[in-house]
Specification:
It contains nine helices and seven strands.
Length: 233
């Protein structure tokens, strides 16, 4: 992994920290031992540079992408419940990335592939009309106005991502930031021929996505509302 970062620094460039706290020796070992087998990084880089599309096992009925999987809680649970679906998890935060690599090995999971590069490069090597669902669960809202440009959800990224969805499939976004919520709605409501419709509102506590991540639960414990936006192709 360090070799790839040295050779292809642009692919690993992003806003924020890669490590929230010092990586444990176990985390470092997980990355060293399992990265080559279960990470898409090198394949994505090669496909991007060669202007090719990435291929996955065709035995899977669906392909679902989670961008920013954190500690992998939702990703791991969904992969366990949906064995016939391929899950692609993208996460630049190495603490969570190493944890999921370790879980993949420990539990012999064969329907998750992970990626630690900037997800914009991953999007560009996916085939059009290929993805069944995309999740952004409580991404960093970057609340300061001068930092808004750092938000992972912006019109440029949506325009790259929506064509990768199959027809009538969707991107699901949750956030506890009212400002980010309004920002996403304002972008999505602009007339755009590549998406069909959007649905949005407060996430009910009966919704299956309510409380699915540590970030969400932290917000809920502060009595913050959770909002959901779903953009359909």
């Amino acid at each position: 992994m360090l070799d790839l970062k040295t050779r292809y620094p642009d692919f690993y460039r992003f806003y924020g920290r890669r490590v929230a706290k010092k990586l444990s020796q176990q985390s470092i070992q997980s990355i060293e031992k399992y990265f080559n087998n279960d990470s898409l990084d090198e394949e994505v880089i090669n496909c991007f540079n060669d202007k090719k599309s990435i291929d996955f096992d065709k035995n899977f009925k669906k392909v679902i992408l989670e961008v920013g999987f954190g500690n992998g809680e939702f990703l791991l649970e969904q992969s366990n419940q949906n064995k016939e679906t391929m899950f692609i998890g993208c996460e630049v935060y190495l603490n969570g990335f190493s944890k999921v690599l370790n879980k993949i090995y420990e539990n012999k999971i064969n329907n998750i592939k992970v990626c630690s590069i900037n997800f914009v490069y991953l999007i560009q090597v996916l085939k059009d009309s290929y993805i069944d669902k995309v999740y952004f669960l409580n991404p960093d809202p970057w609340p300061k106005v001068r930092h808004n440009k750092r938000r992972v959800i912006n019109i440029e990224n949506l325009n790259l991502l929506v064509p990768k969805l199959k027809k009538n499939c969707s991107i699901i976004i949750t956030t506890d930031s009212p400002d980010y919520y309004e920002y996403i709605i304002s972008m999505s409501e602009n007339k755009n021929p590549i998406w069909n419709k959007i649905e949005y509102g407060e996430l009910a506590n009966s919704d299956s996505l309510y409380g699915v991540s540590a970030y969400q639960r932290k917000a809920i414990n502060k009595n913050n509302k959770i909002y959901k936006v779903e953009i359909f192709k």
